[in-house]
Fold this protein.
Amino acid sequence: MRMNHALLLLQNSDYSVQTIANKVGYKNAGHFPGIFKKTYGITPKRYRVIHHIP
């Protein structure tokens, strides 16, 4: 559920990846990109480049 919310924030906001990690409940924002990549096979930054809605 947290990752689904992170996807929406990456697509529809300009929040930093660290801010998104905090907003979806990760206390250690440095841990978030690894979990995201393990879940979706892509880093949060790369996901945003591909899917960001301006």
About this structure: Residues 2-12 form the longest helix (11 residues).
